[in-house]
């Protein structure tokens, strides 16, 4: 019976030793979108820029991939990240090459996209070597689709009627 009473104490002591032996490490990677909330119009593409930094003063960080997502029907192109990245690394903090400032991805808003707020996220994967695929950082973003470059059908009918009328008037004038 006495051994059962001491079991919780032994478990807590063991957990304390395990936690004491774990080295605490601060985040060594900083990733922020320059403008995470953007307005867009159907039929256009908008670019998202970011600042990506290695804040570790001793180790190099490799950026090996990404996992993007965005609400449908918007389309995300991570080509700018893939082109600029090409499995690149960030030097230890406070040295040249420890920060990347530039275009990260593009969002295309297809024609006919309903107005509204669309959400997405972009995560960067990597680690201490060129094969690592750990989540280094992620950022959420929003695209507010307003307006449309597609004219309403009634506007098209009005435009075509006006052009037909103008064509008829010019024909009569030339026929005289």
Describe the structure.
This protein has 176 residues and is α+β, with helices and mostly antiparallel strands. The chain has a single domain (27-162), classed as Sandwich (Immunoglobulin-like). The protein has three helices and nine strands, in the order αβββββαββββα. The chain has helices spanning 2-21, 79-85, 153-175, and strands at residues 29-33, 37-42, 45-54, 61-70, 75-77, 89-90, 99-108, 116-127, 134-148. The strands form two sheets. Strands 2-9-8-4-6 form a five-stranded mixed beta sheet. The chain has a four-stranded antiparallel beta sheet with strand order 1-3-7-5. The protein is elongated and about 105 Å long. The N and C termini lie far apart (119 Å).
Tell me the layout of helices and strands.
Elements: H1 2-21, E1 29-33, E2 37-42, E3 45-54, E4 61-70, E5 75-77, H2 79-85, E6 89-90, E7 99-108, E8 116-127, E9 134-148, H3 153-175
What is the structure about, briefly put?
The protein is an alpha+beta fold. Helices cover 28% and strands 41% of the residues.
Give the key terms.
single chain, 176 residues, Immunoglobulin-like, 5-stranded mixed β-sheet, 4-stranded antiparallel β-sheet
**CATH 2nd-level architecture:** Sandwich
Lateral strand order in the biggest sheet: 2-9-8-4-6
How far is it from the N-terminal to the C-terminal residue, by CA? 119 Å
Instruction: State the major sheet.
Output: 5 strands, mixed
Low-confidence stretches: 17-26
Strand content: 35-45%
SSE topology string = HEEEEEHEEEEH
CATH class: Mainly Beta
- Helical content (DSSP H or I, runs of 4+): 25-40%
